[in-house]
Design a protein that fits this description.
This is Porin family protein. InterPro entries: Beta-barrel_OMP, OMP/PagP_B-barrel. Pfam families: OMP_b-brl. The chain is mostly beta strands. It has one domain: Beta Barrel (Porin), CATH 2.40.160.20. An 8-stranded antiparallel barrel has the order 1-4-5-7-8-9-10-11. A hairpin with a 2-residue loop joins strand 4 and strand 5. The two termini are 31 Å apart.
């Protein structure tokens, strides 16, 4: 009986320790997979470049914010990169392709943290607005003649996000999430920039946690 009572007490203490913190300053770092859809439709000097296909890319970034349950407010900086795989010039698939598309995102975000679904696991949804600095390079060696294209633009950006946060310790948490990022039309690219991001991150809370 004493063993059962002690085990129950330990389990209850574990749940209390793993309870969801309600507010405080925090920072996070994250990284993951990036998928970039076709984002170029450029016409210059009689050459129309389009139908870009990118290899699987990556993103890495960090954020700093304040959590006041159920809302979180944060500033975020993210770098996204994907290497070029294919593109067309005047409807002709190019060979000897080299290039990339990368972006630096500076975002201001607001998140809503839902009540924990399994003790210390919280779903979240969020939106953000900010600015994107976009660079693209599309080069090929043929099939008829070499082509070169480089673009660098900035544009208004916005995003929507969702995921799960696992509050496994007083000052630390893990999260997994998905983000859709897009911009207004980018002049040199001729289209909007879009990215689908799947991330894993680590959160550090600076303050002593105050629990529900």
């Amino acid at each position: 009986m004493r063993i059962i009572t002690a085990s129950a007490a330990l389990f209850a203490a574990t749940l209390a320790t793993a309870a969801t913190p309600i507010d405080g300053w925090y920072s996070s770092v994250f990284a993951g997979y990036a998928y970039l859809p076709d984002n170029v439709s450029n016409s210059f000097s009689g050459l129309v470049r389009n139908n870009t296909i990118y290899q699987s890319g990556y993103d890495v970034g960090g954020s700093f914010g304040y959590k006041g349950s159920p809302l979180r407010y944060e500033g975020e900086l993210t770098y996204v990169n994907a290497e070029l795989k294919k593109f067309n010039v005047n409807g002709v698939r190019q060979v000897g392709v080299r290039g990339y598309n990368n972006v630096i995102l500076g975002m201001a975000n607001v998140f809503y943290d839902f009540p924990g679904i399994v003790y210390d696991v919280q779903p979240f949804l969020g939106i953000g607005i900010g600015y994107a600095w976009i660079n693209a390079q599309l080069n090929s060696s043929g099939p008829t003649s070499p082509t070169r294209f480089t673009a660098s633009n900035s544009a208004f950006a916005y995003q929507a996000a969702g995921g799960l946060t696992y509050n496994f310790a007083e000052n630390y948490a893990l999260n997994i999430g998905y983000r859709y990022v897009a911009t207004e039309r980018v002049d040199d690219l001729g289209k909007i920039f879009q990215a689908h991001l799947a991330n894993v991150g680590v959160i550090y809370r600076f303050d002593e946690a105050r629990y529900k």
